[in-house]
Amino acid sequence: MKTLSKNIITWLITILLIVVTLWFALKDIEFSLLINILSTADYKWAIFSIPIVFLSHFVRALRWHTIVKPFLGKASVINLFSATMVGYFFNSLFPRLGELIRPYVFAKREKTSVSSVFASIVFERVLDVLTLGVLFAVAFFIARDKIINMLPGIDSNKVIMFSIFVLIIIVLSFYPPFISNVLKFIVKPLSEKIYLRLLDIYLKFRRGFAILKSPGQYFRLFIESLFIWFLYSLPLYLMFFCFDFHNYIKVSFADALFLLIVSGIGVTIAPTPSGIGVMHTLITYAMMGLYGLDKETSLAYATINHATSIFVQLFFGSFFVFRERINKLPGKDFFMGNINLEEKNNNINY
C-alpha cells in the first residue's frame, strides 16, 4: 500500500510537470501558424538525423563497455547496446525507469552482479554531468555574447566561477578517500545507522567504479564522451535547416550545443517521459532568446527534434525489448546487493 501511494504521487507529480511545462510551451501560440510551419518544414533533415541519433546510442554502449571492462573483462557490446536501447524505450514511458531496467537486462544476459552494473551507470551519469560542464564552458566561450544577452542580469564571471566549483566537487567525488571522509566525519556523527547504510551502498558501488583504477582508459572515456555529445548536438544543428530562418539568421554548431545543454540540464532537474513538455518549453524559450524568433517557429523546431528522438527510442527500442522478451518489470530490490542470478527467477526468457 505504501509503494502504491508512492507510485501514485510520483505519477501525479510527473503529469503535473508535463501539464505545466506544456502550458508554458503552448501559451499564446497561434495554432494555425504552428501547423502551417510544421507542414512546410523540410523534413529531409529530420530523416538525416535518425541514423545519427541511433549511432549516438551505439557509441554510448561502446563507452559503457569501456566502463564495465575493468570488473567484467570481456563483455558483449551487443548485449550492452540492447540494454541501452531497452533503457531508452522505458525512459520514453516513465522518467528514470530505463536507468533501473538497463542494468537488470544486461546483468541477466552476462550473469553478473546487478549492483555493480548499476554502479557503472551511476558513474556514467556523473561522467555525463562532467562532460556537460566542459561543453557548457566551451559553448559559453564561443557564444558568450548570445548567452549573456539571453540571460540578462547574469554575471558571466560568477557563472565561470560556479562552473569551476561544480567541476572540482565532481572530480573530488571520484576520489575514494574523499567520499569515505565525508561519510565518516559528516554523516557518522549525525547518524550511525545512516552512515553504515551509505557506507554499505558505497562499497558495493565501488566495483562499478573500477575504471578509476585504469588511468590508461581515461583518454578513451574522454573521447567517447565528447563523441556522444557531438552526435547528440548534430541533429539539433541539422534541424535548423528544416526552417527558412537559417537564411537570415546565422546559426552555428555552438548554438546547437547550447540548446542541448539547456534541454539536458532541464530534463535532469525536472524529468518527464522522453523530456516531453520540459524539452519543448526550454528549447522554445531558448530559441526565442537566442534569435528573437516567434514562438510558433521555436516550438515547431523543438517539436520536430523531440519527435525524431522519441521515434528512435520507441521504434528501435521496441525491437530490443522483444529481443530481451521482458514479460514483467523487476522488483524494487533487484539492484541492491549481489544477486545470485542462477537462483533468482528469470523475468527474461532467452
User: How many domains in all?
Assistant: 1
Q: Uncertain spans, ≥5 residues at pLDDT below 50? A: 332-350
Number of strands: 0
Shape: globular
The major pleated sheet works out as: none
What is the overall number of helices? Answer: 14
Summing up helix and strand content along with how strands pair, one would put the structural category as mainly alpha
Provide the succession of SSEs. Answer: HHHHHHHHHHHHHH
Q: How helix-rich are the residues, as a percent range?
A: over 70%
Can you put this structure into words, describing what you see?
- There is one protein chain.
- With 350 residues, the protein is an all-alpha fold.
- Helix content is 73%, strand content 0%.
- The chain is built from 14 helices and no strands.
- The protein has helices spanning 2-26, 31-39, 44-72, 77-91, 97-110, 114-142, 144-150, 156-173, 176-187, 192-206, 218-238, 253-269, 278-291, 295-324.
- It starts with a helix and ends in a 26-residue tail after the last helix.
